[in-house]
Amino acid sequence: MRPQDLIEKKRDKQALTRDEIAFLIRGYTRDEIPNYQMAAWLMASFLNGMNEDETTALLEEMLHSGDVLRHDEIAAPKVDKHSTGGVGDKTSLVLAPVAAACGVCVPMISGRALAHSGGTLDKLEAIPGFRTNLSLEEFKATLQQCGLALIGQTKEIAPADRKLYALRDLTATVPFRPFIVASILSKKLAEGIDGLVLDVKFGNGAFMKTVDDARELAQMLVNAARAMGKRTVALLTNMNQPLGRWVGNAVETMEAIEVLRGNLAGDFAELSLELAAQMLVVGGLTDDLQEARNRCIAAIQSGAALEKLRACIIAQGGDPRVVDDVNALPQASQQCSINAARSGFVSHIATDEIGRIVMDWGGGRRKLEDPIDYAVGLYVQAKLGDQVRAGDPLLTAYFNDQTKLAEMTARLRNAYEISDNPPQLDPLVKEIL
Hints:
alpha/beta
């Protein structure tokens, strides 16, 4: 079998067999197939499509390219959540301790910021000392001790995905659903989970802009995960505006702590609780979703969820003072209000631009080695449908780099549209698959 024969086959719109996909993935992971041949296969697949059997084969090969964990020593159901990414999406920091407090074990391998979308690892690392680079042995020990652990991808987990993702990024083949499905699920299923809750976002702040695109991706993810024997549910959720009131690493961590302290108002708390409740159902702790919601609320109101977060922070080397005093998180030295230029209703927010502004002001990386200013953040005072008067604050920016103030202020003001009439709003959770 030769790589060029399989490239030609896919170029000519033919489906590859399981053995042929195995040959490509194993050969590439072992450095036996060069980047230029794998790049050609990626583009041929991107242009000509992959069927369900090919997608399943790709997923299974990527999954088994490294270690697939087991947690037989933990009796509790093992359930994780995956989000396709958005702006202000810090739900993992709430739902993981809530679900753990309710009896679900949460082995979570998360990612960093990507394009305009924030990363769970960066938010966690805003906590002084918090380690996301645990070894697999430390990961398993933390799970046993706390019922949850939140780490980054290790070299042992899905190495084929790590290598392929870098090549997809360089060849403009990232937004291809079979590749997305295989990439997401190869990492998640390697965690040793029994079930998975998917938060597939749509809207101008999501990678899938339309509900139809999000639904198609969600259905592919659900079908593939269930075919691998995992109980799975997917929620289609609205990302036409930032989730919650804060955008940025330290400030989003602060907002998550405030929810765990019992501040349950707003869309961020609503979605966090809904996803956590779905984790309880997927984990088999109850078949009644309303009962699951009530148990999640009780875990917050009793303080049990907050104590789970504290235990996880301590176990992963972080400073637990942040749980009691959010001022122990990085603080910006300056702030500025961005005000409405006219009266009316907030009819559109360029959510992806909001995310990019935080990144460009130092809250994200352009290159892997770039430092992050964890204190950079935005407080979203006006959300979609809100009525504002000229001069009312739309956002407050918190920053350290004064040299970018004029540029960022103009960009933030341009990210808002104000109209005479209120807009029609999609619900936060559009569908459940």
